[in-house]
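Q: what sequence does this backbone want?
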């Protein structure tokens, strides 16, 4: 039996597994259907994956001696005890994702992954209001509501409910809440103007669905940007 063929016993979230001694934790989780978030991992790269996204963080060990490692970078050892979920891991992943989204260009309407954005489920699972509705909307190109001249708050509001509006039975237009991000708002205003959407109507819809101070800030920012474009 070669070293590659050798099987070792490890524990993941309380369950024992016999796995290859040359495998990483993430490879095993993917192979066994264990839910472990990851973004930058590419199976083609194998051991050359860099672990830059830090979303696949896990805890290794027991008690107070647990250490945090990237699952895509960590090759298993015999009797290794691995935890894919804990309060500590949740908080670390949430912080990492918040930092990532703060630098992420929200050009979702022109993104080829719209309707299948990997950030949407992560933001929902980690309770982060950073991904606009456009990122989860499958309507692209000529099917986009804005392209058809319909008011949609997708470019300004965060995704989450994926449901029908309880007020009028139509597709949700973003009552989950608006996102205050100057670049995002500017892109939205430019796109609304380009598509011939009346900004006064957009503001009316924001006021209808968003009662927070952030909603008022978004309206003020739209007015400021509109004034600069006129």
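A:
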């Amino acid at each position: 039996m070669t070293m590659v063929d050798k099987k070792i016993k490890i524990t993941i979230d309380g369950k024992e597994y016999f796995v290859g001694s040359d495998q990483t934790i993430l490879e095993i989780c993917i192979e066994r259907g264990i839910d472990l978030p990851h973004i930058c991992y590419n199976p083609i790269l194998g051991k050359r994956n860099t672990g830059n996204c830090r979303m696949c963080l896990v805890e290794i060990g027991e008690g107070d001696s647990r250490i945090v490692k990237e699952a895509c970078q960590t090759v298993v050892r015999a009797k290794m005890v691995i935890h894919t979920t804990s309060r500590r891991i949740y908080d670390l992943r949430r912080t990492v994702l918040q930092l990532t989204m703060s630098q992420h260009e929200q050009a979702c309407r022109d993104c080829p992954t719209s309707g299948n954005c990997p950030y949407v489920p992560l933001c929902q699972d980690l309770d982060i209001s950073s991904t606009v509705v456009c990122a989860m909307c499958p309507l692209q190109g000529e099917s986009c509501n804005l392209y058809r001249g319909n008011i949609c708050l997708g470019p300004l509001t965060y995704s989450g409910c994926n449901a029908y509006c309880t007020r009028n039975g139509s597709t949700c237009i973003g009552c989950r809440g608006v996102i205050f991000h100057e670049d995002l708002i500017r892109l939205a205003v430019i796109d609304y103007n380009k598509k011939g959407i009346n900004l006064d109507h957009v503001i009316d819809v924001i006021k209808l669905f968003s009662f927070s101070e952030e909603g008022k800030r978004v309206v003020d920012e739209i007015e400021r940007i509109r004034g600069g474009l006129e």
